[in-house]
């Protein structure tokens, strides 16, 4: 609201849950039972604190009522453009992607009692839909608990034997909130601000820049934002840090938060960046997958934002050691991540990943039954470690893989190195932004590389030719540009056959370029 100041929000997932539970108990004392109202075209879940309305049988969130506000979702949008699951997909070899909000055709109640309601919205694929509907059986679930001011959603995607192959670029959950209520966005303790209005991104208030997601604010509703750039990619976040993000309403003072209960659905590892919240106000929970291939006996399932109690959890423990330059001598490694991968070909997803202890030891808990590969990688060393034995998870057991020795791939001693092989370009030179294209949030900020247009600064810094880096003399912190740009060329002077190899291929920087560790 005009004239209302929002103090800096400290994002604490446990505190959010605790406050929600306290508020629920205090409001009802004890909390009322969860109620379900099934209507002709809608179904309503209500626990006395929160009321969620979904279209039936589509399974689209049309309304969220909370703390005296009839609907937190954007009421000026059509009902099917408020809160929904979606996919972006394509048939192999065909140009253009298909966007689908996964409207269901079937509805049923999975569970209903005074403590919990779980709803299912389903859609079944058949061959007559080939080329027009994604070849998946869809089951979208929504859960409400007693005494809780939130709700849960997850989905099961099933791809059966003999069904067509397809490319699944992404799937996500999107929430579009009321712009007259939610104007302050928070992604992290040091990444939060009052945001522009969506109207500011339309002419004549805004000017589109190099791509449709980026706008310069020419005449924004809030004059203090004049001249700033708004770009949803500036609010991307590493998977490892993407635990909670959302929006704050100042009158009344409430928050709408997307909380990630598990990393099991994510692909790409901890330093893979993805979208969070951005001007709309919009909130996303997003997953990228890849090619889905039909093979005999293969069933592809994907659960996202799942909250479920099961009894078949167990632990995998061990210690990662690094091979030293001396034969048969090892030292404790400090892996950035150890991952159990429940992968089938081209449908891999991280099931459990964590940062190990300082001595390289690790313990991965809460693992579902199945067969897994174990991977790890260590900052400062190229390549990935892969355990050479499939780990089979059975109910009620625990596995200790012992000491695992990682031997970084090399053909000889390192002669020179530019940067640090840590899957980040943070150590390289990041220029100051063009004063015409500033986001005030990132002035003197650790994430200053997120400023718009920094790639154009390369041509300004080197107008007559590419940078020259002299091994042994140049300093990569000052002399090596942080991003690969179209003008940058790398060449090796060699009397024999030579090549450059990237030490990894799974991560990108915030602009889609691969990090430039060499």
From TrEMBL:
Pfam families with a match to the protein in the record: CBM-like, fn3_3, Rhamnogal_lyase
GO BP terms in the entry: carbohydrate metabolic process
A Gene Ontology cellular-component term: extracellular region
GO function terms (MF aspect): carbohydrate binding; rhamnogalacturonan endolyase activity
Record-linked InterPro entries: Carb-bd-like_fold, Gal_mutarotase_sf_dom, Galactose-bd-like_sf, GH-type_carb-bd, Polysacch_Lyase_4, RG-lyase_II, RG-lyase_III, Rhamnogal_lyase
Residues in coiled coil: none
Main location: secreted
Rhamnogalacturonan lyase domain span: 357-400, 414-487
Keywords, sorted A to Z: Lyase, Secreted, Signal
Keyword Membrane: no
Enzyme class label: lyase
EC number: 4.2.2.23
Catalyzed reactions: Endotype eliminative cleavage of L-alpha-rhamnopyranosyl-(1->4)-alpha-D-galactopyranosyluronic acid bonds of rhamnogalacturonan I domains in ramified hairy regions of pectin leaving L-rhamnopyranose at the reducing end and 4-deoxy-4,5-unsaturated D-galactopyranosyluronic acid at the non-reducing end
Localisation: Secreted
Protein family: Belongs to the polysaccharide lyase 4 family.
Name under which the protein is recorded: rhamnogalacturonan endolyase
Species in which this protein is naturally found: Acorus calamus
